[in-house]
Amino acid sequence: MKITLNDVSFEYNGRRVLKNVNVEFETGKIYIVVGKNGSGKTTLLKVVSGLLEAEGDILVDEMPADPLTLRKNVGYVFQNPSSQIIGATVEEDVAFSLEILGLDKVEMQKRIKRVLELVGLSGLEREDPLNLSGGQKQRLAIASMLARDTHFLALDEPLSMLDPPSQREISKVIENLKRRGKGVILATHELEYLEDFDMILHMADGTIDFCGSWEKFMEQRFEDVEVPFKWKLWKKFGRESRWEVEDADTFNERRWNKF
Ligand SMILES: Nc1ncnc2c1ncn2[C@@H]1O[C@H](COP(=O)(O)OP(=O)(O)O)[C@@H](O)[C@H]1O
Ligand SMILES: [Mg+2]
Fold first, then answer.
1. Atom 7 (ligand 1): residue with closest C-alpha?
2. Which of 110, 169, 183, 224 is deepest in the core (most CB within 10 A)?
3. Which domains does the chain have, with CATH numbers?
4. Is 157 a catalytic residue?
5. pTM (2 decimals)?
């Protein structure tokens, strides 16, 4: 599936915060959206998810799409997971988000089990979400959206409130979504643990002033983006390198193989 934005603009109280945005999102890919606070990342994600109605043309597989169609195809996960969690238990929270789909009980239970497994929350079905850690809440918010089985997920800074181990976990969950064929649109400042992404979008003052591959991105200099040290290593040694999990021996071995 493909979502295309043609000259899309959005204003809050007469102030334009998205300005003639042109971009295309496909399933099976991860799009990272970067840019400083206030540049329009959240607005873009909400427009793509059909939570805000914008001016301009939005197409789903080349057909004009209204916000309702977008909502069916794109699940939006809020920046603060607590604002999305409504169930008294983990299980119930996922069940709530499935309610509008009108599934039978068996199918519903199956889905809940599957998504909790996928995000690594199995065993916590009966837990009160309030007792979960920040990382677990974030995973629950993703699971609840994932259960709706939309083609795309728009994740709004899912890593921002997490410690490094949780950031790494969620990054792996996100890469897993891609492997399952989902399209992921990810607004984030935390780039450290993401490895398997496809495109980077840079936003500035309501416009997308860069959209391209990681290689192209590295040729640019965006002062508002903190490029992980790892990316500099990738640039030198190739992106397939997995530096952080390698011990010194395999590092050296790989290095020798290169020369
Ligand atoms: N509910 C709102 N009402 C009015 N202005 C808003 C609202 N939400 C965001 N804005 C403004 O829109 C601009 C883009 O915000 P946002 O999309 O949240 O950027 P980002 O996610 O990159 O920080 C900012 O200038 C922000 O102040
Ligand atoms: Mg934001």
1. 12
2. 183
3. 2-227 (3.40.50.300), 234-259 (no CATH)
4. yes
5. 0.90
